[in-house]
């Protein structure tokens, strides 16, 4: 699920961060998903097993809110209208709620894979132990 990101590279360089933040704010606004009342994590496709598991781990209130936002955005799309300004998602409300869970699941999967591929060698009773 996770794609390579330049975020760490940019955030470590204050001059680059200062230059990129206004561009990122403009891009998020131009994308238009906030005008439909969506958050950035609402745009993640639900087709992978990792995302499906992350959605199951969401708290009930957050899961309900997500479904409400998606249905409302779909209705707005069908009627070719945007939400009124007071109902649009504000930048401070647009936070990552699903991505941390996805990253945790990916980490658990990598750890499980590492543990599954681990080889354990048992000592034989016949062999003398070297101290």
Question: How would you explain this protein's 3D organization?
Answer:
The chain is an all-alpha fold and 131 residues long. It is built from 5 helices and no strands. The protein has helices at residues 7-11, 14-31, 49-57, 60-78, 99-116. The mean pLDDT is 89. The chain is 53% helix and 0% strand. The longest helix has 19 residues, at 60-78.
Blueprint (SSEs and pairs):
Layout: H1 7-11, H2 14-31, H3 49-57, H4 60-78, H5 99-116
Helix pairs in contact: 3-5
Mean pLDDT: 89
Counting helices, strands and paired strands, the structural category is: mainly alpha
Number of helices: 5
CA-atom Rg in angstroms: 22 Å
Oligomeric state of shown chains: single chain
The separation of the N and C termini measures 48 Å
Shape label: elongated
Strand composition percent: under 5%
Major beta sheet summary: none
Please supply descriptive tags for the structure shown above:
mainly alpha; 5 helices; elongated; single chain; 131 residues
Task: Sum this structure up briefly.
With 131 residues, the chain is mainly alpha-helical. It contains five helices and no strands.
